[in-house]
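Cast an eye over this sequence plus tokens and walk me through the fold:

***
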Amino acid sequence: MATNIGMMDSAYFVGRNEILTWINNRLQLNLSRIEEAASGAVQCQMMDMTYPGVVPMHKVNFDAKSEYDMIQNYKVLQEVFNKLKIDKHIEVNRLVKGRPLDNLEFLQWLKRYCDSVNGGIMNENYNPVERRCKGVKDRNPKGSQKNPRSLQTNNMHNPGSGDTVGLKKASGFKQGKTYAAPGANSSGEVQALSQEITDLKFSVDLLEKERDFYFAKLRDIEILCQTPELENLPMSVGIKKILYAADAKESALADAQEYLSQFTSSAETETEADADAGADADADADADANA
């Protein structure tokens, strides 16, 4: 099973839409953003579906909004990992901040791991909505309002139609937003712009990750070429010509190739000379033998 997965593994190239679809289909949720899973409850329930009975669902808080409650969820998850001897350290302090990239990477790893168990086949008898009902209820509903939407209210299928009070509250909240807005479409525009900003931040995070990855590779090559045993070799000098080229518009590849060709020509000339010398020596030896 996949526990240690390298950063260049195909698991980390799974897009957020595929991850969200995977979560929503399996847990009957309706998440629209990766950071909505930052509380750790989704991850706990994924492990509960993969290993029925291993996760103490009564300790999982699906209404977690504060970092304190989220950390408690991740403690439960880490205990499950330890129980199953899964060698995976959870970067709790980064995940609870709700940054899309950090949460996406962890969910990508989790999907790869869950898919490696029983070939990723879902447990048909597993009822995700019913299992969520066993979770911890919000102990301080009037506390932090950092994330007003909870996983409990994000169910794709409403388990019952008797919760009229909740519906009234939800409709009242939306009406309040409508009256407070200067225009009928302003609320939708704000949401669209917020989503666009989130997407741009997500793209920047991915670009920074890719930049850091390739920079680390180049740095490793530079350190290797600076090794005393290798730094004066023609190949090392040619590589450093490319690394240290000051002009970003023109490639230094041609310069490096020209430099290497000089040594290649010299090596070929020396090889031919050695071959000729060897041939002459053989001819002289044959002449002496005939004489």
